[in-house]
Structure prediction request, 486 residues.
Amino acid sequence: MTPHWIEYLPPLIEGAWVTLQLTVFSTFLGVVMAFLFGVGKLSHNPFIRAFSVAYIEVFRGTSLLVQLFWLYFALPLTGQAIGIDLRLPPVVAGVLALGLNIGAYGAEVVRGAIQSVHPGQHEAALALNFTPRQTMLGVTIPQAVPEMMPAFGNLAVQNLKDTALVSLISLGDMTFRAEQIRNFTQDSTVIYTMLLFMYFGMALVLTAIMRLLERRVGQWRPGKG
Amino acid sequence: MNDPIIRFDNVVKRFGDHTVLDELNFDIRKGEKVTIIGPSGSGKSTVLRILMTLEGIEGGVVHVGGEPLWHEHGPVGLVPASQAHLHRMRGQLGMVFQQFNLFPHMTVLRNITEAPVKVLGLGKAEARDRAEELLELVGLSDHAQKYPHQLSGGQQQRVGIARALAMRPNILLFDEPTSALDPELVGEVLNVIGQLSEEHDLTMLLVTHEMRFAREISDRILFFDQGRIVEEGSPAQLFTSPQRERTREFLGSELDRVLAV
Ligand SMILES: Nc1ncnc2c1ncn2[C@@H]1O[C@H](COP(=O)(O)OP(=O)(O)OP(=O)(O)O)[C@@H](O)[C@H]1O
Ligand SMILES: [Mg+2]
Prediction:
């Protein structure tokens, strides 16, 4: 007779696949948001700046769970009230909530890294007559990215762990599957131990990938090339 | 030819309520090599930074190539310059920084080709040829593919000079180009600057504490103190028979500084 835990594996792996997709898509969305609003917060345009600050503060100042519930349960009702269909599939609500949330934290990372670039770099760029846009894209951001990588690595792992929350809107991620098996078998110890190891394993892989990326983007730095 | 290429006309510069340049006036002719000397805080860097449009001015007018730098001609007199005007004017100037300020994430070659390609619209091949010529001029042909951190300070500064020259400026500004270097690396950078000083058309404005070098290459020396020109003249005049007490004092202290090293 095969031990029970082997029978739990297929549904858990199915859930892991959903967790992986959620992590990848929402981290990607988060990075895009982080750059948009991190740069936006440093904009000379007061409207862009105010909008960026508002986004960052709202998403950092409220819980991810509430954001998720709001997008999934409240948004459709709001839409109904004004006559638009704003119902989101669970995956979309999950990716949006996770991505927007991590984007708000990431925006502060991006802003900090951009501000850490030496002022002499901007002066050199101006003396060579680069436009502000060319300076940002060609000089500032390439130097800021390696600076951001460790923090982004932490955020990505944080994000992986946060995906467990989407099980609460019936998305079939790893935690959701575990919960299903547990309801059926009552084998809590084994299932939750497996769940723990699977998240930990995924986090290890993710950390390793971020390390590689970090090295790749910082190749030009002293002692890293 | 008689029109100055640079003219400071009653220029006032303040930081808060600290007046750094107090109605400063001077002219520099095309092709002239001028060195600014003076004690720390006297406003030497500020003059260069105003010319490079890194600092604005609070009063007066700066002219470059016969045009106002920080102003434009409006319907009734001068109005503050637009970004477009500043962009156009900047094309005449280049600057070499005390801390080199090379782009650390680009190879030496890209440091030199980036602006010609992106700003001047040069083709990649043409920019590369230009860069290779300049690297030869500064004696760094073998280092094109290195990153700045793989070079010595003296080599980095020579790349800084090549990078500025790649934009073909009429006026080259040097702000203490050798002050951040170990003493044994100063010579190689001064050699390159000395070579450039032979260029008939290039106007050079140099801030330095290398008095002997200033004396060799300059047509004229401006001695600054507290945001004003206390004394100016040919190197022979200013170094051998300074007229003002303040100048003598300063030259004496510089001599002590050099002897103390
Ligand atoms: N960004 C700034 N904010 C406030 N004060 C400034 C700023 N830049 C320069 N100053 C002040 O302006 C004065 C002139 O500075 P500047 O850098 O032109 O001097 P300098 O002659 O180049 O001196 P040094 O030989 O030390 O480089 C100094 O008193 C300095 O403290
Ligand atoms: Mg200075």
